[in-house]
Amino acid sequence: TSPHISPHLPTSPHVSPHLPISLQDSVYISSFLDAAPLQAMLLDERLRRLLCMRSRVKEVSEASSMCEAVRSLAGAERMSSGGEGMVVFDVCSGKGLGATLLSFLLPRGRVVMLDSNGGMDLSHLRARPNLSFRHVDLFSADTPAVLREEAAGASYVVAVGMHLCGALSPRLIDLAVAGGTIDAMALCPCCLKGAHGKAVARSAAERSVEPYAVLVETLQAICEREIEAAAAGGGARSRVGVWTDREMLSPKNRYITVQKWAADKAAPDVALCQACA
After folding, report:
1. What does the pLDDT look like over 181-219, one tens digit per residue?
2. Counting beta carbons within 10 angstroms of the beta carbon of residue 261, is it exposed (0 to 12), middle (13 to 18) or buried (19 or more)?
3. Considering just the CA atoms, what is the radius of gyration of the chain in Å?
4. What is the DSSP secondary-structure string of 16-34?
5. What's the start-to-end Cα distance of the chain, in Å?
6. pTM for the predicted model, two decimal places
7. Long-range CB contacts (< 8 A, 24+ apart) of 105-108?
8. Which residues contact 89 (CB under 8 A, 6 or more apart)?
9. Three-state SS for 228?
């Protein structure tokens, strides 16, 4: 049993043995082992199953990174209220370890998992009253209406996408920037495919740089074009940010963020952790 886990907790042999070895690899792992959400998850079999995947260390670091991204976008005042009035969309959530940790981070907010796979075991949702799931094809014409429905009454809406592949990243950017529902977006991309992917690979080879760096530049440029078009149409003011989370245990650890604010308001502050710069 890890020294970071209470000996009175019913730890699973699938959970604890492989997390402590990564304490020096990422502050997210040590923080997770010391945090209340882990204790709650170990006490509930429905939640404990989320920690039994082979890639649990990487998954925990990615989920924790998602929480840090949302925390930075939400700001201190919203976080101090437990996320009251907030709705967070976990886009292409899978089973939702990240969404589950977000539900602990924002106990007075709501977290909505969005995924095209409606056949997953989602029994853990019954253990988290502020966590829900919508079976959604992100490319469906109905998706903007689903977002509006789920965000009804919210004072602040964040969409976060972790390691989205192919056209999913540009689609999330379009929904976040062109739509009127989402106030802030944090996108950590994985790859682009098709014509965009070939252009990224070609540019990276010509410049002798990593394809992932060109991928992030490409998506940043898409954000900036979408923002310019939205502003020309009288939309909210927006800004794009790019930052790297060095504590995420993945080489694909860069975020593109978008924040919106009303024309008569000052631009919001963004407070990143020291690892996220």
Report:
1. 999 999 999 998 988 899 999 999 999 999 999 999 999
2. middle
3. 19
4. STTSGGGTTT-HHHHHHHH
5. 34
6. 0.89
7. 105/67, 105/70, 105/71, 106/70, 106/74, 106/82, 106/130, 107/82, 107/83, 108/81, 108/82, 108/83, 108/84
8. 112, 114, 147, 150, 157, 158, 159, 160, 182
9. helix
Residue type for position 257: T
Give the DSSP H/E element, type plus range, for residue 112. strand 110-115
Alpha-carbon distance of 104 to 92, in angstroms, equals 19
- Is beta strand 110-115 parallel, antiparallel or unpaired with respect to 131-135? parallel
Asked whether 91 and 82 are in contact (CB, 8 A), the reply is no
pLDDT in tens, 76-109: 999 999 999 999 999 999 999 999 999 999 999 9
Polymer length of the chain: 277
When pLDDT is averaged across residues 237-259 and rounded to a whole number, the result is 95
The answer to whether 42 touches 5, Cβ cutoff 8 Å, is yes
Dist. CA 196–CA 193, nearest whole Å: 6
Average per-residue pLDDT in the chain?
88
The alpha helices in the chain, defined as continuous H runs, are 27-34, 36-43, 45-48, 56-74, 76-80, 97-105, 143-151, 168-178, 194-207, 211-232
Beta bridge partners of 86: 156
245 secondary structure, DSSP code: B
